[in-house]
Amino acid sequence: MLEVLNHPLITHKLTQMRSKDTGTKDFRENLDEIAELMAYEVCRDLPTQPVDVETPIGPCVGYELSKEVVIVPILRAGIGLLDGIRRLVPTAKVGFIGMYRDEKTLEPHEYFAKFPKDLDKSVVMIVDPMLATGGSAVAAIDAVKKRGANNIKLVCLVGVPEGVRAVQKAHPDVDIYLAAMDEKLNENGYIVPGLGDAGDRIFGTK
Ligand code: PRP
Ligand code: URA
């Protein structure tokens, strides 16, 4: 399943992020706000279970989340989406996977992985602003599946058809959520028009 979350607020904030004149502070704040807006939609089908509660007036059957949510940001840039999602799902656990793309081959390289227990019983949200070749996302999904995850969502800000196809081919069971589907990759593997290097813009590096 692929869902592009076209929403005026998301598009407005993403447009500010795309501008080369937007500095680190505004870039980060817009990303954080988009993450929260996306989380609302991404969580729409989280499983719930009935629970008895007593209101001040009397008994009532309510519903509570029945599965743990585990957010897995792909380091570094995925960290920019973490707080916004956690504001909506404050009980979420957090796993980390460190991945960098070789600038020449565009192959992903894993350099760190730390996950909470019981991924097999959790909804696992892998988050990263950019879905370019899809190599990093496919490798991150491989890593959580190796540890038992079987209910996985991939949440990215900007994707391209190549990256979406790569993930759908390798992991057809994973739901993909984007804020925008851009046109293509350039010869250096950057998304066009995209927003540049997300990690560098979030953390002020270059
Ligand atoms: C960027 C981005 C993704 C990856 C996407 O990370 O945040 O993780 O590239 O590209 P792909 O779909 O072709 O794999 P980068 O490797 O630049 O690392 P960083 O987050 O540390 O900047
Ligand atoms: N990673 C980024 O940060 N930006 C792109 O356009 C592609 C990969």
From TrEMBL:
Residues 4-205 form the Phosphoribosyltransferase domain. Allosterically activated by GTP. Its cofactor is Mg(2+). It holds the Pfam family UPRTase. CDD domains: PRTases_typeI (cd06223). It catalyses: UMP + diphosphate = 5-phospho-alpha-D-ribose 1-diphosphate + uracil. Pathway: Pyrimidine metabolism; UMP biosynthesis via salvage pathway; UMP from uracil: step 1/1. One of its GO terms (molecular function) is uracil phosphoribosyltransferase activity. SUPFAM superfamilies: PRTase-like. Its EC number is 2.4.2.9. Binds 1 Mg(2+) ion per subunit. The magnesium is bound as Mg-PRPP. Keywords: Allosteric enzyme, Glycosyltransferase, GTP-binding, Magnesium, Nucleotide-binding, Transferase. One of its GO terms (cellular component) is cytoplasm. Uracil binds at I191, G196, D197, A198. It comes from the Bacteria. GO terms for biological process: UMP salvage; uracil salvage. Catalyzes the conversion of uracil and 5-phospho-alpha-D-ribose 1-diphosphate (PRPP) to UMP and diphosphate. Belongs to the UPRTase family. NCBIfam families: PRK00129.1, upp. This is Uracil phosphoribosyltransferase. The lineage of its organism: Bacteria, Bacillati, Bacillota, Erysipelotrichia, Erysipelotrichales.
